[in-house]
Specification:
Elements: H1 2-12, H2 17-43, H3 49-78, H4 83-107, H5 114-136, H6 139-158, H7 161-185
């Protein structure tokens, strides 16, 4: 029983909670910039869908580079790589992979209409936040994720197709903004 208790405590403990908070902030800033850039391109009547894909490819390269660097720095500093950290990283790697698969299904075989991309991304990001909330035992993340996933699923039928991308962008940017601002505000405070 003591060994099981120790493993559970390790799964719940984060040797450097500031790293996770900083990663949230990085992704929050990058996602906000990505949505602003794509909105500006749309308002400027940019028609080439590859231009939008390039924005998100740059977003992912910078975000994952920063994430991996911050995680490695934390592991070097603490000498530990927790199960919790691995679970969160793998969850978001899977979310990223599914999002790129959705984009490929639009460009490649055209199985997905353009209006469905952002709602589907909102569902994926919501699931990522939900699982992260489960892993770190954070009800706010869990419920925000559930809300984002459900909103993304409901959007295609509740909002006119030409407006769904804007509403979906707000749905998937909101968790990053809220938790990114929270992360920056609490980045130097140890976890309670």
């Amino acid at each position: 029983l003591a060994e099981i208790h120790r493993m559970l405590e390790e799964a719940r403990s984060d040797p450097d909670p500031r790293t996770g908070r900083l990663i949230f902030a990085v992704w929050g800033i990058l996602t906000t910039l990505g949505v602003v850039a794509c909105t500006a391109m749309g308002m400027s009547r940019v028609q080439n869908p590859l231009a939008y894909t390039l924005v998100w490819a740059i977003h992912n390269v910078i975000g994952w580079t920063a994430t991996l660097w911050l995680n490695r720095r934390s592991i070097a500093k603490t000498g530990r790589n927790t199960r919790q950290g691995r679970q969160i990283s793998l969850t978001w790697a899977m979310v990223t992979g599914v999002i790129w698969l959705i984009v490929w299904m639009f460009y490649g075989p055209h199985w997905i209409r353009a209006e469905a991309i952002n709602p589907l991304i909102a569902v994926c990001i919501g699931i990522g936040f939900f699982v992260t909330g489960l892993v770190v035992d954070a009800p706010a993340l869990l419920w925000t994720g559930a809300g984002s996933a459900l909103a993304g699923a409901i959007l295609p039928v509740a909002v006119p197709p030409d407006k769904a991308w804007m509403v979906a962008s707000a749905v998937f940017i909101a968790p990053f903004l809220v938790f990114g601002v929270w992360a920056l505000a609490t980045r130097n405070k140890p976890k309670d």
